[in-house]
Amino acid sequence: MKEPMLGSNPHVGRVYYVERGRGLPVVLLHGFPLDGRIWDAQLGALSDRFRIIVPDLPGFGRSSVDRPFTIASLADDLRQLLVQIQALPCVLGGLSMGGYVSLAYITKYPSDLLGLMLIDSRAEADTPEAKQNRDKMIQLVRTAGAKAIADPMLPKLLAPAADQRNPGVVAHLRQIMEACPRRTIEFALAAMRDRRDCCPDLPSIAVPTLIIAGEEDVLTPPALAHAMAKEIPHAKVSIIPESGHMTPMEQPDRVNAAMREFLAHFPQQPPPT
Ligand code: MLT
Questions:
Q1: Sequential DSSP letters for 144-204
Q2: Closest residue CA from atom 9 of ligand 1
Q3: pLDDT tens per residue across span 77-88
Q4: Exposed end of the chain (fewer CB within 10 Å): N or C?
Q5: Ligand 1 centroid from CA 210, angstroms
Q6: Could you give the CA distance from residue 218 to residue 40 in angstroms, rounded to a whole number?
Q7: In the predicted model, is pLDDT for residue 271 greater than 70?
Q8: What is the chain's percent helix, strand, coil content, to nearest 5?
Q9: Is pLDDT at 270 greater than 70 in this prediction?
Q10: Structural domains present in the chain
Q11: Where residue 268 falls among pLDDT bands split at 50, 70, 90?
Q12: For ligand 1, is residue 102 a contact (CB within 6 Å)?
C-alpha cells in the first residue's frame, strides 16, 4: 500500500489511494457517501493478476477537500492522480456516484481508458424531483450531520437479507457512511444534483464496457443496466443475484468473478503511455 500523496491541484487537497498488485491498472471508484473501503474484497482478490488502484475521491475517506467540487472536477482530480502514478491507460470502474465520475472521465479523456466498468450506476441526470431531494438532504446534513443521511439511506443500499448473507456488512457500511465529513456530503450532493446527462455520450463509448447491477438494487435497478447496455456499443451486463446496490460488498465473490472474466480480455501488460 502507498502512503497518502499530495494531489498536484491545490484546489482539491490531498488525494489518498491504495494500490496492490502488478499488471493491467484497474481503478475502482467508490459511491456516495462512502470511501475506498467498499472495494476491500476486490483489492484483496483481484490484485493477484491486476494492479488494483483504489482512490478516496477528494473529501472522502482519507482524502481532504477545502472547496466544492463537481463530478467533472472529480474526473480531473482522478486524472492527475493516474498521470502521477503512471497508471494510464487503465480500466476504470465506478459504483453509483463513482460511475458518474467514470462516465465524465471517459467523455473528457477517452484515450486514457482501455475499458469501463459501471457498477450499480446510471447515465441520466437527476430528475427535478431528485434535485429537490438533494436540496433537502443538503439542509439535513447541515443541521443533523452524516448519521441523519446514513439512517434513511442504508436500507436502500442493501438487499433486505444482506446481513444474513454476509454478516457484518450493515455495520461496516454504516461505519463508513457515518465517517463521511458533513461538508463532503454537502459538496457531493450538490455535485450529483448538478451533473450532466451522460445518455447522449453512451453511443460513442468505444471501449469494452462491463455493466454490473444487483438483482435487488432499488436505487439503480437491473432495467437501467440493460438500458445503458443497449446504448453502449461493446457492453456486457452482469446481474448479480442476491444483492442490492452494494454489490462489491454484498456479493464480493460474484462481483470478483464477473470482473475477472471481463478483465482477462485485456492485454495484461498495457502499452506504454
Ligand atoms: C451512490 O451510491 O453513490 C448514490 O446512491 C448515488 C446517488 O445518490 O445518485
A1: H-HHHHHHHHHHHHS-TTHHHHSTTHHHHHHHHHHTS-HHHHHHHHHHHHTPPP-GGGGGG
A2: 97
A3: 999 999 999 999
A4: N
A5: 19
A6: 23
A7: no
A8: 45, 15, 40
A9: no
A10: 17-263 (3.40.50.1820)
A11: confident
A12: no
